[in-house]
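Tokens as discussed.
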């Protein structure tokens, strides 16, 4: 006869809510970090989560490359505003500059029968 299985601890409603939130947040988008944070904050907004909870959720959605980029902040997080600091650093690292965005737009644009002055 197999030994009895110990009972599992009761699942708290907050645990279920956290699992539900985590499943609604996609992995971090390095090509659109600002848009990812807008979506993240839309999911987290109604929950009124603390900076620490949001920080932990963002860290859980980062891949190896992103974690390496913010390793200093993960290893030694600030006492206050952890989420805001992490958010700002990720956006600074992965958001293309306005000049780079313009260059990408122009280089990918097809003129067809148009002259460049017609785009203005």
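Sequence:
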């Amino acid at each position: 006869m197999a030994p009895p299985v110990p009972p599992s601890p009761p699942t708290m409603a907050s645990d279920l809510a956290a699992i539900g939130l985590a499943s609604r947040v996609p992995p971090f988008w390095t090509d659109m970090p600002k848009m990812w944070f807008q979506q993240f904050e839309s999911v987290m907004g109604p929950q009124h989560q603390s900076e620490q909870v949001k920080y932990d959720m963002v860290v859980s959605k980062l891949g190896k490359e992103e974690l390496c980029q913010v390793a200093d902040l993960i290893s030694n997080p600030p006492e206050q505003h952890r989420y805001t600091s992490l958010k700002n650093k990720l956006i600074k690292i992965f958001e293309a500059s306005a000049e780079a965005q313009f260059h990408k737009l122009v280089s990918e644009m097809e003129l067809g029968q148009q002259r460049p002055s017609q785009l203005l």
